[in-house]
Amino acid sequence: MTKRVAILISGGGSNMVALAQSMTGDHPARPVLVLSNDPEAGGLAKAAELGIATAVIDHRKFHKDRSAFEGALNASLEVANPDIICLAGFMRILTADFTAKWEGRMLNIHPSLLPKYKGLHTHARALDAGDSEHGCTVHQVTAALDDGPILGQARIAINKGDTPETLAARLLPMEHALYPAVLRRFASGDSRPVMLG
Ligand code: GAR
Fold first, then answer.
1. Which of 75, 102, 128, 170 is deepest in the core (most CB within 10 A)?
2. Are strands 84-87 and 54-56 parallel, antiparallel or unpaired?
3. Which fold has domain 1-102?
């Protein structure tokens, strides 16, 4: 049966677009909801253009009450009834209660070669460390931040003269290749990692 996919975003949503556009033809999944915690997220209009239902749960209205925010998130998700949730540039930290509820069904893309550089400023940290390569990771979401079983990685070389901005710009197209490849495999019931680059 076709899998239902909800995509959670906070920003421009370029990964969301790559995921949504991949879910056609014989793909085992279809997008059913794009949800943002930020009403200004550019990805919301892109999702609407693609004909996908959208929702906003503005975290600021919950005044740092994470469980109330996540209660609203869960209510919206339960209506959409997803088999799989893809975090795609969703920049809220999730509690263990939330991750436990969706564990095994929730994926995230992170712009580093995990387990390196969990958290923020991943491009700058790879450069500061003098790394010769960088990349992105898709993993299952567990209670620990940017942790959980790895479902795929894509690698790029770090060149002399790279800045956080040039690295981010070179990595993003790799994210757009990796995340759809992982989702297709995961939605077909196969959790073997996808390795690109
Ligand atoms: C992407 O680079 C994604 O890897 C990163 O945010 C960007 C979202 O871009 N995610 C994280 O940093 C999560 N910790 P997009 O909105 O254009 O997909």
1. 102
2. unpaired
3. Rossmann fold (3.40.50)
Best mutation site among 9, 108, 109, 113 for ligand 1, i.e. most ligand atoms within 8 A of its Cβ?
109
pTM for the structure as a whole: 0.98
**62 DSSP 8-state letter:** G
User: Which pLDDT tens digit goes with each residue over 72-125?
Assistant: 999 999 999 999 999 999 999 999 999 999 999 999 999 999 999 999 999 999
pLDDT (tens digit per residue) in 34-85: 999 999 999 999 999 999 999 999 999 999 999 999 999 999 999 999 999 9
Q: Which residues line ligand 1 (CB under 6 A)?
A: 9, 11-15, 43, 88-89, 109-111, 136, 172, 175
* DSSP state letter for 192: P
Token pair, residue 94, equals 């999730």
Q: What's the gap in Å between 89 CA and the centre of ligand 1?
A: 4
Domain-wise residue ranges, the chain: 1-102, 109-197
**According to the CATH classification, is domain 109-197 in 3.90.1150.10?**
no
